[in-house]
Specification:
- The complex is a heterodimer of chains A (406) and B (307).
- By secondary structure, chain A is mostly helical.
- Helices cover 72% and strands 0% of the residues of chain A.
- In chain A, helix 2 runs antiparallel to helix 16, helix 6 packs antiparallel against helix 16 and helix 10 crosses helix 12.
- The longest helix of chain A is centred in the middle third of the chain and has 32 residues.
- Chain B has 307 residues and is an alpha+beta fold.
- In chain B, the strands form five sheets. Chain B has a four-stranded mixed sheet with strand order 10-2-12-11. A two-stranded parallel sheet of chain B has the order 1-8. Chain B has a two-stranded antiparallel ribbon with strand order 3-4.
- About 6% of the residues of chain B have low confidence.
- The chains are: A mainly alpha (406), B alpha+beta (307).
- Chains A and B meet through helix 7 of A and helix 1, helix 5, helix 6 and strand 7 of B.
- Bound molecules: iron/sulfur cluster (2 copies).
Chain lengths: 406, 307
């Protein structure tokens, strides 16, 4: 017990220590967190009227961000497979950072759901056992289960590994193998369930297309790993952790396949809607060409498409993706492209035109923007602290007393 | 269909309540300074799902709510919990050839059901269509029309409200079972159980559900104190609401407010299970259709052309 407490304080002390860059980074994030919390308190007191959501567009920016982040979380799987299944050494060394990113992304997802709720204090109503969770009928109930399960799995794996390392012991792959194996279909499932959340609504033809779930996976596997590539380069810069270029290039190659698939599926969807030209074309038309003179999302969607295609071309060419300048450009492009496409470009057109044909042009209010920024800052803060905790253990700088007091 | 809630599993509920109460009291003692701690806040927070309460618990809750409303609105409220009558399945008919688009139904509904005046909530939407257009294309309809006089030349009107689907997607998707279909076919919401996730709004093909984006506001003189727990009692910020076929009236054998007010008699209402009812007569003898039939929601709201 004493050792445990002592270790706990060692960690805290370590997490609090850093250079001036570290402190200014934390201060920078705290600023946005504070602004976000203040906006949220205002929203709690006044109601969601402070957002731009209305009856016609009843989900907006919060749910868009949630959807994007589920993809980021699911993308950890792209590291887990080569690392543990194919034993690809360079990636095996960094898979931990992917898992911690998944933990962070899911935490942010949960925050986004909470700020979107009309009565957040009643959240216990949807928990199993203490509430009356509508399982298996409601996909939202499924989402609660798979997201929390995924959080638990990644948390367990990464903390087990860290725990062992911090006590200078080898971790037993045999012990966590079942967890790792289960985390692969689970990662796919969190994104599939999230896709089904929209997919199952016959009232919304834009979502009610069977291509939705595969497209979700394809776009998740392009944006999430791209985010990781950027993070790895930062980790490499600020710590003594070595990350092999080979790992990064391998991930870049995998991203190329994922984007290719996503673009193909997009083409298939585009063709079906525009060639058949039924009444269900309207949301798609709204997105890319505007409807009845309403064009708020058009420039965004075309930029997203251009981003995605450019990124695809860069990732496709081995010389371009193995040059860090072009690689980073491509990563930023694909992250932005998918963020637009899987965020606002997915959620809003489900509601435009509305079920009774009304067009309400939604664009997030300041409250929504500042709360969203606050949650992103919280995520960045959480990930920073997790890394700050994990990195020295990883490099061997931080070791704990074992029970014998050594 | 949700089927976990069947009857009242009291023992389970009590233990759950006990657990939560313990946890909550722990929190309460830290969060709310003594003296101001109002027990009813915690009773409200811990209130069970309506369908999980037994008669006694329902009575306690109703008493608490009546007191709460009394304090809040300075008006005596009567909150009924009348159950569905056996052998009834309510159905609604609307004669499109008669509707003149006056929207009296909209405002009668607002008054009867204590809808928020600011921000405004309307359970009924009247759509205006140009005659001769591809009219079932709802996109061609207009919701915001301001005529000097109705009916307008060259237009016709179609009111839309909750269709009380026999197979309601809104119920299917609700993660907390806060909304469900009663035995008489009315889809209701427990405003004290809804978490405001708005999934049901995304699922409803008829735009029938409305969200309290802010605290509902009604002038005291405009309140209707004759209410039903599942119907027109005052709502809260952050929950969803919708048309309930005026459950407070129809379960007492009256017509819904919109039927009563319609100046041209375009609206019909009755028991679908009663072969001699007017609604059955209309369905059997008029040219009838239901909105968005391809979605298999089986609305119990029938549009027809009498002439
Ligand atoms: S019309 Fe909408 S709210 Fe009413 S029962 Fe059908 S799906 Fe539910
Ligand atoms: S908003 Fe309320 S009634 Fe609608 S799905 Fe969510 S909890 Fe259920």
């Amino acid at each position: 017990m004493y050792a445990l407490l002592k270790n706990f304080f060692t960690v805290l002390k370590h997490m609090a220590k850093g250079d001036k860059w570290y402190y200014s980074w934390l201060a920078f994030l705290s600023f946005f967190i504070i602004v976000g919390v203040a906006s949220y308190i205002r929203q709690l007191n006044t109601g969601l009227i402070l957002t731009a959501m209305r009856d016609q567009v009843s989900w907006g920016f919060y749910i868009s961000n949630f959807t994007f982040l589920v993809g980021v979380a699911a993308a950890a799987v792209l590291l887990v497979v080569p690392a543990y299944i194919y034993n690809f050494k360079p990636i095996k060394e960094i898979v931990l950072f992917g898992e911690l990113l998944a933990v962070t992304a899911i935490t942010m997802c949960i925050l986004f759901i909470l700020v979107d709720m009309g009565r957040p204090e009643r959240v216990w109503h949807l928990m199993p056992i203490i509430g009356t969770m509508n399982f298996p009928s409601s996909l939202l109930a499924w989402d609660v289960l798979v997201l929390n399960g995924y959080l638990a799995i990644n948390f367990l794996i990464s903390f087990y590994v860290l725990y062992k390392m911090s006590h200078s012991k080898e971790y037993s792959i045999q012990l966590i193998k079942p967890l790792i194996l289960i985390s692969i279909p689970w990662a796919i499932s969190i994104h599939t369930v999230t896709a089904f959340l929209y997919n199952g609504l016959s009232a919304r033809p834009f979502w009610n297309a069977s291509i939705l779930a595969p497209r979700f996976i394809a776009s998740a596997l392009s944006s999430g790993p791209a985010l990781m590539i950027i993070i790895f380069q930062i980790v490499r810069k600020v710590s003594r952790i070595e990350i092999d270029n080979k790992a990064i290039f391998k991930i870049a190659e995998l991203i190329a396949y994922a984007i290719g698939l996503n673009l193909f599926l997009f083409g298939a969807e585009f063709f079906k809607e525009f060639y058949s030209g039924s009444i269900h074309l309207a949301p798609m038309e709204y997105l890319y060409f505007g409807l009845h003179g309403k064009t708020a999302l058009v420039p965004w969607m075309w930029s997203a498409l251009i981003f995605n295609i450019t990124a695809f071309l860069i990732f496709l060419s081995p010389t371009a993706r193995e040059n860090f300048l072009t690689l980073n450009i491509a990563c930023v492009l694909i992250i932005a492209g998918v963020y637009i496409e899987k965020g606002m470009g997915l959620v809003v057109p489900g509601f435009v035109p509305g079920v009774l044909g009304e067009i309400y042009e939604y664009s997030p209010s300041w409250t929504e923007k500042s709360i969203t920024l606050g949650i992103w800052a919280t995520g960045a803060m959480l990930y920073t602290l997790l890394l700050k905790f994990a990195m020295p253990i990883y490099t061997g700088e931080l070791r704990f007393l074992s029970k014998t007091g050594k | 269909m949700p089927n976990k809630i069947k009857g009242n599993s009291i023992s389970k509920s009590i233990s759950r309540r006990g657990f939560l109460k313990g946890a909550a009291l722990g929190l309460a003692s830290t969060a709310i300074p003594f003296g101001t701690a109002d027990a009813s806040i915690w009773d409200a927070f811990l209130q069970k799902h309506f369908r999980e309460m037994n008669e006694d618990e329902i009575r306690t809750v109703i008493k608490r709510l009546e007191k709460e409303y009394d304090k809040k609105f300075d008006t005596k409220f009567n909150i009924k919990t009348t159950k569905a009558m056996p052998g009834t399945l309510f159905g609604y008919g609307l004669d499109l050839s008669r509707c003149i688009g006056c929207r009296r139904c909209v405002y009668a509904c607002v008054r009867e059901n204590n809808q928020s005046r600011d921000p405004q909530i309307h359970w009924i939407t009247v759509l205006r269509f140009k005659k001769g257009e591809k009219w079932i294309d709802l996109e061609e309809s207009e919701k915001y029309y301001y005529p000097g006089k109705v009916p307008e030349e060259g237009y016709f009107y179609m009111p839309v409200q909750c269709q009380q689907c026999e197979n309601p997607p809104c119920v299917k998707v609700c993660p907390t079972q806060a909304t469900w279909k009663e035995p008489d076919g009315i889809v209701v919401i427990d405003y004290n159980w809804c978490i405001g996730c708005r999934y049901c709004m995304a699922a409803c093909p008829y735009g029938a559900r409305h969200f309290n984006l802010a605290k509902p506001r009604i002038r005291k003189e405009e309140l209707n104190p004759e209410t039903h727990y599942l119907g027109n009692r005052p709502r809260y910020a952050g929950v969803v609401e919708k048309c309930t076929f005026c459950v407070q009236r129809t379960r007492a054998g009256r017509y819904p407010a919109c039927v009563e007010i319609c100046p041209v008699g375009a609206r019909k209402f009755g028991n679908l299970l009663d072969p001699k009812s007017e609604i059955r007569y209309c369905i059997e003898n008029k040219r009838v259709f239901r909105l968005k039939e391809d979605l298999n929601t089986y609305p119990k709201f029938y549009y027809f052309f009498a002439t």
